[in-house]
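Quick start: read one record
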Amino acid sequence: MYSPDRAKQIKFTKEKLKKDGIIGFIEKFSNKDITEFLKREHIKDSLFKNRFFSQKDIQLKKDNVLTDMNNGLVTLTHLKTF
């Protein structure tokens, strides 16, 4: 999802569901403490991503994807309101 407007996104998705359908959400949540968020990103970069990607590729993703992605994140508390 490219924006934090979960109400609109969930409404759109529900309109496409069959009457007995189920929605599953996999979310990367925002954290009020940016240092905690960055710490988790560092753990993923150093313990997982580096097995499959070069440092250059990891940096390119940070530069080109993470900022836009972060703008679309919501907190767990926010998502629970739906």
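The mean pLDDT is 88.
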